[in-house]
Amino acid sequence: MKHYAVIGSPIGHTMSPFIHNRLFDINSIKADYTAIEVSSQDLNTKFNTVLNKLDGFNVTIPNKQFIIPLLDDIDACAKLYGSVNTVKNTNGHFSGYTTDADGFVMALQSEQIRLDGSVIILGCGGVARVMAYECIKRGASITFAVRNQSMDKCRALCNDIRQNFATASVQVCDINTITVGADLLVNATPIGMHPNIDLCPVNDTVISRCGAVFDAIYNPLDTVLLQKARANGSVVCNGMSMLVYQAAKAQTIWEGVTFDKAEIDYICRLASAELANK
Ligand code: NAP
Fold this sequence. Notes:
By secondary structure, the chain is of the alpha/beta class. It has 10 helices and 12 strands. The protein has a 6-stranded mixed beta sheet. Helix 1 (16-26) packs across helix 9 (239-255). The radius of gyration is 19 Å and the shape is globular. The protein binds NADP nicotinamide-adenine-dinucleotide phosphate.
């Protein structure tokens, strides 16, 4: 029996145990997966007493950066994003990875949404950074749309991107006065997330100018943004598939297993029903 977990704080509402245990079932892997409350203050102690006995674990807020100095190595993608969400224990050697990028790319590709055109990204936090890099790598031009207080932080992110990709096309605008349209609009803010489910991060005019819309939010599954985009005839994708694809990638790292689209779609349906029950 192998032992895996997700660590974070607060960890009460995480969907990860539900998703991972069903992914293990698909490949008949004998493993359990639990949620462990670990604050950033507890991380060091818990790493040396609890986490070091696991075969692997996922890392969520607030520990994605704090875990890095405790690991023996991290892969190139985790280095680029300065963030680790998956740890593998190989006989006491702890390696860190990030699977958020794969989750994002595979979720969109599974809906035939292209990442290489013009992209508006709402927000400039952790997941926006990953999404921007993944689109830039594929030749996209990015417009970050952020609130006024995030402007400086966002300009720093743009400079960071240009350091890594000298020819990258990145610009910043105010989220309340977006004048451009795009092939793809991505919501990487919590606007519209439970319990504020009536909120929409952009107005109808902006939505009408975008060919495809991805919302990283998975609770609710169908945000106001996605409802409006669908009504507008846009291709839409919700955050649940990103969540499941990034979990599937973690199992590839731990157990070497892979999943086809039908299996991912099946887990998305189960997880969506579980979320609705909650
Ligand atoms: P984060 O690092 O906290 O970044 C959030 C971003 O949203 C920041 O740029 C923040 O601006 C901005 N923001 C927050 N409230 C805003 C408001 N009222 N108006 C305008 N901008 C606002 O969070 P994250 O980790 O990137 O996550 C972002 C979203 O993606 C969350 O909803 C999260 O649940 C979701 N997510 C989904 C998945 C998945 O697998 N589906 C994975 C990761 C994250 P400031 O910089 O000014 O604070």
